[in-house]
Amino acid sequence: MKTLAPLLLAAAACGCDNPFGYSYLTETLKPGKIEIVQWVTGRFGRDMGSGYDARYRGFDLKTEVEIGLSANEQLSFYFNNRYLDNSVREGLRFDGFQVSYMHMLANPDKAEWGQAIYIEPGYSQTSSKDGTLRDEYSLELKYLFQHNFGASHENVYAVNLIAEVERKPATGADALKLKLTQGIAWELNKHWIAGLEVVAEAEWAEMNNYEYGAILAGPCVRYQRENGFFATLTVLSQVMGSPAEKGNLNVSEKSPYEARLRCGIEF
Fold first, then answer.
1. CA 239 to CA 247: how far, in whole Å?
2. 149-154 long-range contacts, Cβ below 8 Å, gap at least 24?
3. Mean pLDDT for the chain?
4. Nearest by Cα to 126 from 114, 135, 113
5. For site-directed labelling of 39, which of 3, 20, 249, 261 has its Cα 20 to 30 A away?
6. From 2.130.10.10, 3.50.50.60, 3.40.1440.60, 2.40.160.40, which CATH number describes the 4-266 domain?
């Protein structure tokens, strides 16, 4: 029994490690711990026109520093760049930053459902659509759910409810985005976790003028080592979009394909 206990604890710990690229878990870093994560999100296949524009590719590069404040609080800083390849612009450009505060309300290791709130104000200066410069301020609010399951709670199911408000001061334009993400993953062994993730989102201009909606889904995988290093990859494909423009997809406002790689290490 003594030899079995450490194995069960190690298996349960794997359920705490986030295998998802788009969904957050409810657990926070331990006090004094620091995690540095590099994000790379690629967006492919958006229809920006014909000829050269048809080969649109965009990459969001985000560097994140997470700091554990207490047993149930953490602070994160994000520094962003964007690389765009289209007829308007090709190259890397500084985008902006965000600061986030996360507070765990219920620990998924002790409760049936872990819960947390997440608050993130931010600033962006580069359009993800065509790379033009503009000032945009945002506030993102998330309510997070997490359920660990399996014989040793080694598997995880996560749900994120997200609302984001954006404002461009130069034009006075406002936008409201609502998102729902879900992810489920199973531990394969002590190094690998794999699963499926789904992201649904919709946007309204001026808070009441519907712009678009889309649902994307795809596989996710996480590799982790005992020294704190990890890498996660999620690949999403749009399965439905509105207004439909290409089959049942919206390809002008939302890329039909996305991929997100996150690599990090905890100290």
1. 10
2. 150/15, 150/186, 150/187, 152/8, 152/11, 152/12, 152/15, 153/11, 153/12, 153/15, 153/109, 154/11, 154/12, 154/14, 154/15, 154/186, 154/187
3. 90
4. 135
5. 249
6. 2.40.160.40
Phi then psi for residue 130, to 5 deg, are -130, 0
Residues 136, 167: contact at Cβ < 8 Å? yes
Model pTM score:
0.90
- The SS3 of residue 244 is coil
Asked whether the beta carbons of 258 and 239 are under 8 A apart, the reply is no
Tens-place pLDDT, residues 226-265: 999 999 999 999 999 999 998 999 988 888 999 999 999 9
**Domain boundaries along the sequence of the chain:** 4-266
- Please choose, from the candidates 52, 87, 19, 47, the residue with its C-alpha nearest in 3D space to the C-alpha of residue 224: 19
Task: Give backbone dihedrals phi and psi of 155, rounded to 5 degrees, phi first.
Answer: -105, 165
HSE (side-chain half, CA atoms, 13 Å) at 81: 10
Mean pLDDT (whole number) for 200-223: 96
For residue range 64-110, what is the model confidence (pLDDT) as tens digits? 999 999 999 999 999 999 998 766 667 888 999 999 999 999 999 99
Phi/psi at 54 (nearest 5 deg)?
Answer: -65, -15
Assign 131 a pLDDT band (cuts: 50, 70, 90).
confident
